[in-house]
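G., the chain you wanted modeled:
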Amino acid sequence: MPPTTAELVHDQSLGNLLDHCDVELAGLPAPQRTARVALTSFLDDVDEGQLDDAKLVASELIANAVKHGRGAVLIRIEVYELGTALGVVDLGHDTGVLPSNPRNSSVEPDTAATCGRGLFIVQNLANTWSVEETANGKIVIAVLTREGSR
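Predicted structure as tokens:
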């Protein structure tokens, strides 16, 4: 079983924290675009493929917060020696409804699911992801390690 996000971050498996920023998203008409611009600026030392993965993961997490969590409040970007942690904070307290094993198919074989694909994408691009309750809602965190670091 892969380590949880908290284990990766707190046990220093990602190395030392090099830099971080919080980007406010509350009330913005295009929060995903704002996050992608911030990631492009903030992750200027990663290769294009890793940046694209980070932008897609962030977009999916924000879309879920907008659709299911009463809107994204902010995205936290943390850069470690061996990877990046992205955390999207929202005001929802619905941590129990997140699927532990998201899939891209419905109950019927060979048919695509009508929802849940975002977390399926996150699960497949991130090394790990998790959700943690906060005082005012929750944060969904995804960790992407750098090429060759794992």
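The mean pLDDT is 81.

Shout if anything looks off.
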